[in-house]
Amino acid sequence: MKPVPEATSLRRAPVQRRSAERLTRILDACADLLDEVGYDDLSTRAVAQRAGVPIGSVYRFFGNKRQMADALAGRNLERFTERVTERLKTAGGEAASRSGGGGGGGWRTAMDAVLDEYLVMKRTAPGFSLVDFGNQIPVGTRHAEPNHRVADRLTEMLSGYIDREPDEDLRRTFLIAVETADTLVHLAFRMAPDGDEKIIEEARELLRAYLSRVLD
């Protein structure tokens, strides 16, 4: 099972701080407009106007709105990774303080961090409901590649935390967990705007049952 390569949507990577700040404004505007008008009515001109940049600045980075949405999805994955990493650092410190030693909180703590931070982004991150990590454009379609990419990232990020080799078995385990969580969380948000809590808790229990069999 080969890792899925990272998607690259930028025509040109920002080199200077000013360019990086302009790219951030463009992606922020794209995210806001996705929530306001949806993907079909999104336009590069509207993004440029919202971001307060010339239309040429948008085309310097992106050839079309699909590339912008892909880049936003990539940024979502980076921010998700940062959120989970920071949460696990805090959890690891708390566990060490309680026990008087080192080490993290194990796969259960990691699973809760991954699921909880995904739910926070699902509820609060602009544009996330449409693009999340890249698998919902066109609206309503779902492709496997982003979930493979998330599984790759979790294998890389969590293997040391749970004291496991980042091998194919662990990656397969995370891929199954990601696919399962993805399906059930989307069901929860179809049932209620902020996610049906009972479905989310059932998803959490299902993941715990599967991962306990594999990781304990």
Major sheet details: none
Average pLDDT for all residues: 87
Question: Helix and strand string, N-terminal first?
Answer: HHHHHHHHH
Q: What is the 3D shape?
A: globular
Strand tally: 0
State the end-to-end CA separation: 23 Å
Helix content: 55-70%
Count of alpha/pi helices: 9
Poorly predicted runs: 95-103
In percent terms, what proportion of residues is strand? under 5%
Question: Whole-number radius of gyration?
Answer: 19 Å
Category from helices, strands and their pairing? mainly alpha
Model description:
- The chain has 216 residues and is mainly α.
- 70% of the residues lie in helices and 0% in strands.
- It is built from nine helices and no strands.
- Helix 1 crosses helix 2.
- 31% of the residues are buried.
Task: Considering the chains and any ligands shown, give keywords for the structure.
9 helices; mainly alpha; 216 residues; single chain
SSE diagram, text form:
Elements: H1 17-37, H2 44-51, H3 55-61, H4 65-99, H5 106-124, H6 128-131, H7 145-158, H8 168-191, H9 197-215
What is shown here, in short?
The chain is an all-alpha fold. The protein contains 9 helices and no strands.
